[in-house]
Amino acid sequence: MRSRRSRLELGCRIAAFALIGWLIGTSLFPPRPIRTERAAAATIAPRLAAWTRMPPASELHVDLDTVPDPWIVDWLAALRASGHIVRWSGSPSPAAIVAEPVGDPRAHVRVGVASPNGASVVLSDDAALIDTMHVASLGALESVPLVVGALHASVGGQSLEIARPAAVRSRAVFVVGRASWEGKYVATALEEDGWSVIARFAVAPGVEVTEGAPMLDTSRVAAVIALDSTVSRLGGALAGYVRDGGGLILAGTAASAANVRAVAPGVVGGRIRHIVQPAQSIALGATGFYPVTSLAENAVPLERRDGVVAVAVRRIDAGRVMQVGYDDTWRWRMAGAEGSVDAHRTWWSRVVDAVAYVPASPDRAQRASARAAPVARLVERLGPPASASRSNTSGGPDRRILLTLIMICLLQEWSSRRLRGLR
Amino acid sequence: MFATAQYESGDWDSAPFVPANIIDTIARYTEIPVAPIGVVAPLSEERMLRYPLLYLTGHLPVRFNAAEQRNVRRFVERGGLLFVDDHDHDVDGVFHKSATEEIARAAGPLAELPNDHPLYSSFFKFDGPPATSQELNGWGDNLVHTHLLAVQREGRIAVLYSSKDYSSEWNYHPENKRFLAVDNTRFAVNLAVYALTA
Prior knowledge:
The structure holds two protein chains of two kinds.
Chain A: H1 4-28, E1 36-40, H2 44-52, E2 59-63, H3 70-81, E3 85-89, E4 96-101, E5 109-114, E6 120-125, E7 129-134, E8 139-144, E9 151-155, E10 158-162, E11 172-178, H4 181-192, E12 196-204, E13 207-211, E14 221-226, H5 237-243, E15 247-251, E16 267-268, E17 272-273, E18 288-289, E19 292-293, E20 300-305, E21 308-316, E22 319-324, H6 329-335, H7 340-355, H8 364-367, H9 374-382, H10 399-419
Helix pairs in contact in A: 1-10, 2-3, 3-9, 4-6, 4-7, 6-7
Chain B: E1 3-6, H1 18-29, E2 39-42, E3 53-58, H2 66-77, E4 81-86, H3 94-106, E5 111-112, E6 149-153, E7 156-162, H4 166-169, H5 186-197
Parallel strand pairs in B: 1-2, 1-3, 3-4, 4-7
Antiparallel strand pairs in B: 5-6, 6-7
């Protein structure tokens, strides 16, 4: 009767010989070779029909310098789903386009194009060319007042397309503060830019000058601009308005008011003062500003000046709060260089636009066409490029693993026999 | 900051107590921060643009030189308010004739301001421009002017012109308000509040 050890030795020997036999067998009678087809992007379309008739488990490899049309990608994905091995390689330039409605009365749609730095983007709609943009920091933004049909962008040899977003009803901007030149000219600039402005300026104890009906409601007001600590008169409702999606701009010392301190991006620092000579024209921040200090965890600095943060923003639930350290931008408008009126108007309009309430677009997913982000869609349908994915087309286990198993079996048998004193 | 416009041609400083009196009035009735002393803003210098509310008065002809005219034009284009008061209160006088011509050249033609304009209700309520004791004092045109004149831009007053001689009416030391039954400088508060809020 064989001992347990001798049965183990026999098992190891049989396993080793079986594996050796399988290796010899596959060497003498290799499996039927997989048919591999290669094509470049430009030659894929005419060959799709032929590829469809190929036997199952054929290998298709396409070299892509640009992303083919969506229907070609879909066809390749269908071949992949039917059992073919479909792989692609190449590095088409990644690009994507988004279009969102904005509350700015002069620019109803904001278009963003993501692409490698330095690329030129030609933006158009169904009617005509809109503009040419230059990509910096991996993106380019454009505000478009009127879009006819769909938006198209041509970048790096790729054509991107997205449907026009639904228009957003323009809402008012509520400016609150003491009667001051800053309040007057902020309201004036926004009105000149087409915003509907509700203003409430404190003139004397218990006396306020009000234009329009102030109401903290995202259905009527896109953003609130608080110019000083009189914002505290709006009470706790203001924080609720922000959480519901309303925009809040805290200029100058407004962020120190008790009712907005918790939502402010930072703390109001001591005013940095600059001396402006009598003959000098005044630019933004030239006379000084209140730095934004002790930034909240999710606050993002937007502008630095003199080594400190001058403008910062943070998100509070659905709303956004921007803290602007400048408290006398009116001097820039009145006593600035030529063009300062336009610059002041544009600057304030952009600040409001950055935080203004815009209702969630229900048609967002619907609008994202197959051409909005071609490379992302390619990876989604066909997987990552071949160089990045591990391929295995031999149809069986790796031979290195088999050889290692054989060695283990033989060593096990040999060492067991040696320990028993056998040769 | 209350600023008096200085121009080359005439007696721009003919009412030296007016700035102090208006500053006192604004501080007395409102919580608007106001500098305790006024400044002089030469119209020929760009720094006049740093004072969005300017007070201009005099008895003598007003003839803007090129720099003054350019700066006044830029001032109103950028949203400033120029308050011009005829210290002569005489529509046939040289100040009125020359000042209205210069204003028309730099900012546009003057027109009657309706007496229900928001200026008259921006703080105190008036039925029109408040009368002054100077209008029928035997000097000037001896008329009670029922309207002020204005150049308006985008619905806002850019230049306000008065023939009512507020420069004489308000040209006294603020301490002497205590002798008045009704403060006659109250309209200045409306002017300041309108300039700051409209």
